[in-house]
Amino acid sequence: MDRIPMTEEGHAALQSELKTLKSVERPNIIAAIAEARAHGDLSENAEYHAAKEKQSFIEGRIAEIDDKLARADVIDVSKLTGGKVRFGATVTLIDVDTEEESTYKIVGEDEASVKDGKISITSPIARALIGKEEGDEAEVAAPSGARAYEIAKVEYR
After folding, report:
1. Nearest alpha-carbon partner for 83 in 119, 6, 136
2. Do 28 and 83 fall into the same domain?
3. How far apart are CA 150 and CA 5, in angstroms?
4. CA distance 54 to 27
5. In what side-by-side order are the strands of the sheet with 90-95?
């Protein structure tokens, strides 16, 4: 069984989502199904079918989160040090062609949000950066073609 790396913040967010799904969403959908049943013939009851579909989604998400939390490898990024890029690193990159600077934190899959500057450990950029150090260049296969980045800074915060 593979371990799933995640930061403490990512782990807490999953636990919070799980708690909400179990204590709020699940009871709400049970009530919605009961109300839809009260309307009579279930074979032509759109509300009932929509509620059952939502229940299926919620139960699937609960199972998925339970599995991820059971396999979680929670990493305290504040205790990491060094100049090599690895999980939890905040990396400042300079695009070799455009001189444009960007900063990304390498996090778990569920925590990734490009608009917040967080990229998944499984993303092409993160995979190209892992193991490299400040001053190294990384070649990233992008949909628009290969891009080269210079690693300007590696931090753990």
Report:
1. 136
2. no
3. 25
4. 12
5. 118-120, 101-107, 90-95, 145-155, 137-142
Please tell me the pTM assigned to this model. 0.81
User: pLDDT tens for residues 40-50?
Assistant: 777 778 888 99
What is the predicted pLDDT for the residue at 93? Answer: 94
Please, what is the average pLDDT of the chain? 91
Q: How far apart are CA 25 and CA 18, in angstroms?
A: 10
Quote the pLDDT of residue 56. 96
Same domain, 61 and 118: no
- pLDDT score at 45: 81
Rounded to an integer, what distance in angstroms lies between the CA atom of residue 48 and that of residue 143? 43
Q: Is 117 helix (H, G, I), strand (E, B) or coil?
A: coil
Domain of residue 11 covers 4-75
Tell me the one-letter amino acid at 130. I
Tokens encoding 72:
């979680």
Task: Read off the tokens for 79.
Answer: 């205790």
Q: Assess whether 67 and 136 both reside in one domain.
A: no
